[in-house]
Write a structure and sequence with these properties.
Blueprint (H helix, E strand, L loop, with lengths): L7 H18 L7 H8 L3 H7 L3 H19 L14 H18 L1 H10 L5 H24 L6 H23 L5 H16 L18 H5 L12 H11 L17 H21 L6 H8 L3 H5 L5 H23 L8 H10 L5 H15 L2 H28 L2 E3 L2 H21 L4 H17 L1 E3 L6
Antiparallel strand pairs: 1-2
Protein name: HTH tetR-type domain-containing protein
Pfam family, one: TetR_N
Keywords: DNA-binding, Repressor, Transcription, Transcription regulation
C-alpha cells in the first residue's frame, strides 16, 4: 500500500476515524491494532507513537464521540440561542442536532454505544462526563419552558436520551422510519417524560387529541413499533440461526427429558457466570462447557451458538419477570396507584451482572442485522405481554391507557435509563424514588381517568 505523509494532527484524526469504524463493526476484542495500522497505511511503530495501546485508542475514540455529542447539542451551534428563537424552536433544534449526529457520524455514535458496555472505568467516566453536558443542554431549554432544574428532571432527561439514542441507532439500519417521524417521537417522548407542557405543544406539529402521534403518523406499522407474537419470534429465530459461532447442523429436536432440561439449565447458569466475569465477546463455547462440566456435544445438542444460548437465557429471565408481575398484580384492587407501581417495580429486578451482559450483547446485536431483528422482535413480544398486565392494573385504579404502543416504548426507555442510575448509586434511596416518579409520570402521560364516555 502506498503511504501518504500527513501532519500529526491529520494522522491522528485518520487513525481515530478508522478506529471508530472498526469498533462500530466489531466487538472490542476482535479489533486488532495491526489492522488499523494497515488500513491507515502506516507501520505499527508509527501507530504506537499516537496510541500506546488499543485501549488508549478506544478511549480516544469514545472521548471524541462523547465530545461530539456534547458540542453538537449545544444551542450555540444551531443559531437558536436565547433571543434568536422561541423556547419551542430551541427544543426542536435540540432534538434535530442530536439526530444529526447519527446521520453524519454513524461510526462514532455506534462506537460510543459500544463504550457504554465497557468494563473500563476510564471509558465509563468519559461517557458519563459527556452525557452530563448533553443533559445540561437539554435542561437549559426545559428551564426556558418553565421547568425547574431538579434531580428528578435530570433523571427524566437521562432516560429520554437513552430512548432517543435507541431510536436513532435503530434508524441507521431501519430506514422505514423517516427522520421526521423519529423527531416527533423524540419530542413527544421528551415532553411526556419531563412533564413539560407550557407552550411546548406547538413545537411538535399535530396536537390533536383524537389520535396519538404514533397512530397519526402510521408508525404503528413500522418495524420500530411492530409487535410480533411469540410464534412469529420463534419462526424468526429459527430462520436466522445459526448466529455467530454456529456449531454442526442441528438434527430434529430431541425430546425434552428431565435430564436434558437439567443439562440445558446448567449450561445457561454457567454461561451467565462466564459472560458476567469476562464479557460476552471474550467468552467461548469451550469456557461455558468447562464451567458447566459438559462436552461441546452436550452444548450443541441444546444450542447452535452462543447467540442462541443468550436469547434462550433472555427469554427465560423474561418469563420469570412476567410471572412476577402477574403475581404482584394478582390482587391490587385495594391498592392505590402508587402502591401498585411500587409492587410492580419490586417484581422487576435490577441486576448488575445481567445488565453488563445485556448491554454488551445489545452492542453485539447492533453489528449483526439478523440478530438485531430477532432481539427487537422478542422485546416487542415481551411488551405485548406486559402491556395488558399494566393496562389491567390501571383499569382497576380508575384509569385507561390511551396508547398502548407508545406506553410500551416509553416504559422500556425509562427502565433502561434508570437501571444504570440505580446500579451506579445502589445505596442512594433518592435514585429509586426518582425512578418510581418517572414511571408514574409515564403512566399518567399515556393514560386518562376512566369515564362513562371512554369505558
Amino acid at each position: 500500500m502506498t503511504r501518504t505523509r500527513l501532519n500529526p494532527s491529520d494522522r491522528r484524526d485518520q487513525l481515530l476515524r478508522i478506529g471508530a469504524r472498526l469498533f462500530a463493526e466489531r466487538p472490542y476484542d476482535d479489533v486488532q491494532i495491526e489492522e488499523i495500522a494497515a488500513r491507515a497505511g502506516v507501520s505499527r511503530g508509527l501507530m504506537y507513537r499516537y496510541f500506546a495501546t488499543k485501549r488508549e485508542l478506544f478511549r480516544a475514540v469514545v472521548g471524541r464521540a462523547s465530545e461530539r455529542v456534547a458540542e453538537g447539542t449545544a444551542l450555540e451551534a444551531s443559531g437558536t440561542a436565547p433571543g434568536t428563537a422561541t423556547p419551542e424552536e430551541r427544543l426542536t433544534a435540540q432534538v434535530e442536532m442530536f439526530l444529526d449526529l447519527f446521520d453524519t457520524d454513524a461510526d462514532l455514535m455506534r462506537a460510543l454505544h459500544a463504550g457504554t458496555a465497557s468494563a473500563d472505568e476510564e471509558v465509563r467516566r468519559i461517557i458519563a462526563q459527556g452525557a452530563r453536558r448533553h443533559e445540561d443542554h437539554v435542561l437549559d431549554v426545559l428551564e426556558q419552558l418553565g421547568s425547574a432544574r431538579t434531580a428528578a428532571l435530570r433523571a427524566a432527561v437521562r432516560s429520554w436520551i437513552v430512548m432517543a439514542r435507541a431510536g436513532a441507532l435503530d434508524r441507521l439500519d431501519n430506514l422505514d422510519i423517516s427522520r421526521g417521524e423519529l423527531r416527533e417521537i423524540c419530542l413527544r417522548g421528551l415532553l411526556a417524560l419531563t412533564g413539560t407542557r407550557a407552550g411546548a405543544a406547538s413545537a411538535v406539529g399535530n396536537t390533536s387529541t383524537q389520535a396519538s402521534p404514533i397512530q397519526a403518523s402510521g408508525l404503528a406499522d413500522t418495524t420500530m413499533y411492530r409487535i410480533r407474537s411469540r410464534s412469529e419470534v420463534s419462526d424468526m429465530a429459527t430462520a436466522t440461526t445459526p448466529l455467530g459461532d454456529a456449531g454442526p447442523a442441528a438434527a430434529e429436536p430431541a425430546p425434552v427429558t428431565a435430564r436434558r432440561a437439567r443439562t440445558r439449565q446448567r449450561l445457561l447458569d454457567a454461561a451467565l457466570d462466564v459472560f458476567a466475569e469476562q464479557g460476552f465477546g471474550r467468552t467461548t463455547i469451550e469456557q461455558v462447557c468447562d464451567r458447566a462440566g459438559y462436552s461441546r456435544g452436550a452444548f450443541y445438542s441444546n444450542f447452535s451458538s452462543l447467540d442462541e444460548l443468550f436469547l434462550a437465557m433472555w427469554e427465560q429471565r423474561s418469563d420469570r419477570m412476567l410471572a412476577g408481575l402477574r403475581a404482584a398484580f394478582a390482587d391490587t384492587s385495594a391498592e392505590s396507584p402508587e402502591e401498585a407501581l411500587r409492587t410492580a417495580l419490586a417484581a422487576i429486578p435490577v441486576d448488575d451482572a445481567w445488565y453488563r451482559v445485556t448491554a454488551e450483547f445489545t452492542a453485539h446485536a447492533l453489528r449483526n442485522p439478523p440478530l438485531r431483528r430477532v432481539m427487537a422482535a422478542r422485546e416487542k413480544s415481551i411488551q405485548d405481554t406486559v402491556l395488558p398486565i399494566v393496562a389491567g392494573a390501571l383499569r382497576r385504579s380508575g384509569r385507561r391507557v390511551t396508547d398502548e404502543t407508545a406506553l410500551g416504548y416509553a416504559l422500556v426507555a425509562v427502565h433502561d435509563g434508570t437501571t444504570v442510575q440505580v446500579l451506579v448509586e445502589p445505596d442512594d434511596r433518592e435514585v429509586r424514588v426518582r425512578r418510581e416518579e418517572l414511571f408514574r409520570r409515564v403512566l399518567d402521560a399515556y393514560s386518562e381517568p376512566t369515564t362513562e364516555e371512554n369505558r
